[in-house]
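Here we describe the complex-level prediction in full. Unlike the single-chain runs in Section 2.1, the two entities below were treated as one system.
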Amino acid sequence: MKFAVTVTLKKDVLDPQGKVVQDTLANLGMKSLKNIRQGKFFEIEIEEKNQLKAEELINDMCKKLLVNLIIEDYKISKL
Amino acid sequence: MNSSVIVFPGSNCDRDIAVALEKMQFKNKMVWHKETKLPKSDLIVIPGGFSYGDYLRSGAIAGKSLIIDEVIKAAKSGCLILGICNGFQILTETGLLKGTLLRNRNLKFINKDVNIKVINNKTSFTSKYKLNQILKINIAHNEGNYFTDKDHLNKLKNENLIAFQYCDVNGNISDQSNPNGAVENIAGIYNSKKNILGMMPHPERMVDNLISNTDGINLFASIMN
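The structure predicted for the assembly as a whole is:
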């Protein structure tokens, strides 16, 4: 089973990288651009047939290592 | 006094701190991260560097290495723990210190000597300094922008757990004297029991007039005391 995990900085955490990317795109003339937040993406494959169990395991991975819960949020979705 | 310096792949200040500790008469041992037992230690140092190439997040992988369980046990039993630079980042990733270190607000690696102020001199790490003493200490980091939630920040202030704050040469703590954007200019913090100190500046680089100054010496002298 394959899952995608997206990790993003929490709303109130400053994201200087995202800001620089946003400013650069604005300089390129992207006038309707409102906001950019930069994050991380993990593609995870595990040997488990039960989706609930699989999601539990991925959740555990996120909490134990992939995500710093003080500053980051995450979303798990099945691929 | 016995000290141990934990060495990870990518640590690069481990020998500097060993030289500083030996100069200050510590009996020091280097401990590779794959060890599962610590030598008898009164002080454990987690040195600076780029453990595991800063993969995932600075300190994230080192924070889950084999020896860390022993460091956590030692910390809980009251052993003194000093995390410098990447060592501070690792301590936050283990949960021994709260908060985290974000990318510098100017997105640049900063390597320069800065002024920091001793905010609490009643700890095992700082008793040889004067209160509000201004030190000139080198910083060299890309992620030194300390961040924590409001509750914890209040706790740091109320319980006098802020060790050092960035300031100017006259001791003014302001946005201009904040090199990396750290909340409240925080350069170093303690845990509640004050046996764990995490700091971004490098005191081990300030123990010899030949290469810099000696503003870092009293940190090690305090521990020895």
